[in-house]
Amino acid sequence: MTTELYILTLAALLQVVQFVLMAIPANLQLGTKTTAGPRDEPLPLSGVAGRLKRAMDNHFEGLILFTIAVVVVTLADQSSPVTEWCAHAYLVARILYIPAYAQGLAPWRSVIWMVGFIATLIMLIAALI
C-alpha cells in the first residue's frame, strides 16, 4: 500500500470520528426522536453541534478531491516524497480543522483548510508531471 493510500484510509476513518463527534452534541441538543426522524427538513443545529456538522460536511467535500488525487497518483505510479508529504499535510490539516471550526477560530480555520486544499492541488499537479 502506498503512503498516499494509507493516508486516504486514515482520512476516511477521520470522517467516522467526525460523525461521532457531531452526533453526540446533535442528539443532546435536539433529542433522539428528532435526530432519528425522517429529516424532511435539515436539522436545526446551532452552536458547537452546528459547527461540528459543517466541519463534517466540509470534510466529505474535501475527501472527494483528495481521493481523486490519491487514486490518480497511485494509478499513474507517480508517488513521490512530494505527494507523500502532501498526503500527510492534508491529513494533519483535516485533523486540526475540526477543533478550529468547532471553536470558531477565524481566520485560522480558513488557513488550515487552505493547507489541505493546496496539498491536494499539488498532488494532482504532481500526477501530471
Structure described in brief:
With 129 residues, the protein is an all-alpha fold. It is built from five helices and no strands.
So, the CATH homologous superfamily? Membrane associated eicosanoid/glutathione metabolism-like domain
Give the topology string: H per helix, E per strand. HHHHH
What is the C-alpha radius of gyration, as a whole number of Å?
A: 16 Å
Treating each run of at least 4 consecutive H or I residues as one helix, how many helices? 5
- CATH domain class: Mainly Alpha
CATH fold-level topology: Four Helix Bundle (Hemerythrin (Met), subunit A)
Please give the largest β-sheet: none
Unreliable segments of 5+ consecutive residues: none
